[in-house]
Amino acid sequence: MRNNRVCLSLLASLFVFSAPLLAKESATDNYNTYCVQCHGMQGNGMGLNIRDMSVQPRDHTDFKSMSARSNEELFKVIKEGGGALSKSVLMPPWGSTFSDEEINDLVKYLRVLCKCKQGG
Description:
Layout: H1 2-22, H2 27-34, H3 36-39, H4 63-67, H5 71-80, H6 100-114
């Protein structure tokens, strides 16, 4: 019986200490972790990786271009990658990395970057 209590105590401790790791990241955190390498710190398409890319990443601060994209299109390209919308295959699919909720939050964050509302 004592061993069972010790095991339960250890499991509870592991859960408590790992809980912050399971917490949902903010869209800003996710963008800064996964997107800035290509899209840049300001979201202007000028990330560190562009010198090695045949297609320049989208400028998320471009009001006109981003206004022409619907939230559904942005969601799909984040989840399924550029090829899903006949765009660059260099844009990877993030559906196995982000939940649908996190992708929706990223779409909202992109709207903040472009200072625009849903288009298309």
